[in-house]
Structures are given as C-alpha cells and as structure tokens.
C-alpha cells in the first residue's frame, strides 16, 4: 500500500472516478486489472500453499475480470484451478472480456460448483460495482461454500458486502483474506462488512497516488495522523491550569458512579484539573469516593451560573448518570457556548425538542460534541436513522450537519463526523470495550481533550482512538475502572 494513502477511505463512486481518471491520463486499464488479479493469485499461494484446488468464481464485471487474471496466473504457476462463472462469460465486456479470452481454462456455470475438501475459493463475483442484492444463484453458492467450510479469498470485497455501507446485500462470503486495490473502502471498516473481510490487504496496482488523493473525499481512518498535530501541542509538563479544567456533572445519590468514571478518565487523559459538580443530596456519596478529583456543589441553574463566571473551567461533560429531563436541558443550554461533551441522558433529554440545542450550537461559537450509540442516535435523529439507504458514515455526517455539533456515532465501527462533512471511521476498538461504564470513560477522555484546547473534531477522534487503545491494553477481563488505568499517553 502507498504510505500516503494509508488512512484514506475511498467510496466505490470515487473509485470509479479514479479509474476513469487513470484511463484518461493514459494509464492502461488492462495493466491495472492484470496487476490486481496477479496480486490476488500471489496472496492465494502465500496463504494456502497446501490448497488442493483453487476455485475461482467470476462475476459479470471487472471484479470477474480480476478473477480470470488470477485463475490464469495460478494455472501458469502449476496449481490446480477450476473456474466457475455467474451469467454468460461470453457477454463480458472491455478488460474483463480480454481477461477471460486470455484465460486458458474451461469455464463452468456457477451452479455446477460442488465444494471439495482442499478447495480454496477465490471470490471474484462482485466488488465495488455491487448495487443491489446478490442474485439467488450467487447466494446459493455462498451457502454451499460456507456449509463446506471452504476458505475464501475475496477480490476487492467479499461478494455481497456493499462497499459504500458495509451492509450485506442478501448474503455474503465471509473471507479469511481480502485483497483490495489502492485504498480501503468504507465497506471494509463498517460493520458487518468489516468482519466478513478477514485480514485486509491494500495492494498498489499502479494508479498514481495523486489521482487517488485528488478524488477521495474527506473521509479517513481514525489514526493519530487525523489529529496528532493538535495533540503534540499538549506538553505533559505544562502547569495544571494550562492543561485545562474539566467539569463533570454528577447525577443524584443513586447514580453517581458514571460521572465519577468520566471524571477520573478526564484526569487520567490529561486534564489539569477535574471538578465533579454534584447535586446537594449526592455530595456525601461523591465525597466518599473522590481523591484527586475535586468536588463542588452545583444544585441548580443559579449555582451553575455562578460557577460559569470562572472562565478557567473551560470544558464540561454532561450526561453520564445525570437523569433525563428539564435540569439536563437547562444545564446543557447554559454550557453550549463553552466546550461540552453531551452524552447519554444529556442527549436523550433533547429527544422531544432539539431545536434550541442545535440553534445554540450553531450560533454560540462553542464546541459541542454529542456521543450517541445506535439507540440514542435513533432517538435524537429519527429521520436520519430511518434513511435505510444511508451508510453509518453518511448518517453521522447528516446528523453533524443538522445539529452543528461533532457527532460521535458509537459502536464497534465508531464514526466521528464534523458539520463540515469531515469524518473518520475508527477500527482499533476490541469487542471487550462494550462493557458497562465504557462510554462514560470515553466522554471523560473527550472532555480532557477539549479542556486542553483541542478543536472539537480532533478532541473527539483522538478520544475514540485512545479509548480503543486503552481497551486493547486492558484486555478481555476489563472493567471500566481498569480501562481508565490503561489510557495510553497521547502519541
Ligand atoms: N482501480 C481499481 O480498483 C480497479 C478495480 N478493478 C476491479 O473492478 C471491480 C469493479 O468492477 P465493476 O465492473 O465496476 O463492478 P463489479 O464487477 O463489482 O460488478 C459488475 C456489474 O454487475 C452488475 N451488478 C451489480 N450488482 C448486481 C447484482 N446484485 N446482481 C447482478 N448484477 C449486478 C453491475 O452492473 P449493472 O449495470 O447490472 O448494475 C456491475 O457493474 C473492482 O471491484 C475491482 O475488483 C479492476 O480490475 C482494476 C482496476
Ligand atoms: K469479490
């Protein structure tokens, strides 16, 4: 993979534009297909040197073309190869037709494929061109291969995985390895497509990086490259007041733990000072559990207004364990012109009337980050959630545009989107992160970044990445407490 394209995500539509631009610039498109198919055959031999037979399943487009090239290369190398085609191979066009006619092997109809022990399937049925549910014939073949436990190497994408959305169109192969070309597609990262890809190899077939970068949108993988320049400005040796002061709001006496998790995570993630703002009746419960985190009585809006006169308290987390209702709404609206992570109950409190919140976010000049998981997203953005055709990325982008906030759409494939459309997809979170209190820790890390002066998008993306790394370090038996202890330094 080209280093400059390491974090770039390209949608199938953008990839088509890139292919067209490559052809227009005089690059031989058949040479690209040859390069793609040869890379697949190399991966097959590398991963399955003991295969008794390579079974190449070829579709009606250029993905199928890559398959014919791979089949020819494997046969040239002396491997046993069988080719099965979906549809009429004589109807292939362009480069795919050329690849088929250069392939010396007999082509059988797809339905004739019967899995055998020792088979390795090379899935070249559909790639970036998949636009609708797989034909029934392809679905039946997938079922047979899966019943036969045949390992599958996918060309570009496992057939059935939608490259734009990661959704499964009717059925899909579950590959052990996927070879894609030039750059990752959203479908490689978004669930459930991600888990159908197996290991992912991004192979450079020779399209100049400039042609790719110029046509790729504002979508990236979430790595330190997306926000590192903002993080490196934070010197850990800086005086505590310069590392910001984070305020975290506690719920009532029976639900104080979530806010304390956010607060301790905020401290661990580098906020200079953290104060837990507690209602009167929860002061005792909070006081008995806090050491480095400070405690302040904030019962109603008057207390909050008085506290907000201290401009050094420059970022807030509102929501974890806070309770849904008017108090959350009033507090959030007062905090909108500062830097605010609105999480959990904080967001749900605006379910019935979000207009004022979104207007404030647009006009106040503050930094608002909202962190919905799927259920909260559907409550706050029902009309966007109901748009079945949109990908998770497109939903997060639409929500960020509508709310004028940075939206962190959480899940195993968390998407962070800014109102500008800029978005990153995260891929470093282990499944064990789906544990009680994990979201509270994430909100605290975000709050710490905001307190340290990071812009909202970068603060959120960096927090999601650090949270994922903390999850990896904490390992399988983690609790939210051990997760806090494992938050890594900012790179
Ligand atoms: N630069 C590169 O990355 C290169 C990629 N290559 C490979 O090319 C494919 C993309 O090829 P494309 O021909 O655009 O698309 P597919 O092969 O995935 O699909 C073929 C056509 O099938 C039709 N289609 C779509 N969905 C279905 C369906 N469910 N059932 C039946 N038919 C379907 C569709 O045509 P329609 O007109 O019928 O809509 C597709 O166009 C990419 O994945 C790479 O593997 C090049 O080899 C090298 C350069
Ligand atoms: K495929």
TrEMBL record:
Keyword Cytoplasm: no
Binding positions ((6S)-NADPHX): 62-66, 127-133, 156, 258, 321, 373, 440
Gene3D superfamilies in the cross-refs: 3.40.1190.20, YjeF N-terminal domain
Domain YjeF N-terminal: 15-213
Co-factor binding comment: Binds 1 potassium ion per subunit.
Cofactor: K(+); Mg(2+)
Molecular function terms from GO: ADP-dependent NAD(P)H-hydrate dehydratase activity; ATP binding; metal ion binding; NAD(P)HX epimerase activity
Recorded coiled-coil stretches: none
Reaction catalyzed: (6R)-NADPHX = (6S)-NADPHX; (6S)-NADPHX + ADP = AMP + phosphate + NADPH + H(+); (6R)-NADHX = (6S)-NADHX; (6S)-NADHX + ADP = AMP + phosphate + NADH + H(+)
Entry keywords, A to Z: ATP-binding, Isomerase, Lyase, Metal-binding, Multifunctional enzyme, NAD, NADP, Nucleotide-binding, Potassium
Keyword Zinc-finger on entry: no
Residues annotated to bind K(+): 63, 123, 159
Residue ranges constituting the YjeF C-terminal domain according to the UniProt record: 223-491
Residues noted as binding AMP in the record, renumbered to the chain: 410-414, 439
Record CDD domains: YXKO-related (cd01171)
Enzyme Commission number, as recorded: 4.2.1.136, 5.1.99.6
Cited InterPro entries: Carbohydrate_kinase_pred_CS, CARKD, Nnr, Ribokinase-like, YjeF_N_dom, YjeF_N_dom_sf
Short name of any one Pfam family annotated for the protein: YjeF_N
One BP annotation, GO: nicotinamide nucleotide metabolic process
Assembly notes: Homotetramer.
General function of this protein: Catalyzes the dehydration of the S-form of NAD(P)HX at the expense of ADP, which is converted to AMP. Together with NAD(P)HX epimerase, which catalyzes the epimerization of the S- and R-forms, the enzyme allows the repair of both epimers of NAD(P)HX, a damaged form of NAD(P)H that is a result of enzymatic or heat-dependent hydration.
Homology family: In the N-terminal section; belongs to the NnrE/AIBP family. Belongs to the NnrE/AIBP family.
Protein name: Bifunctional NAD(P)H-hydrate repair enzyme
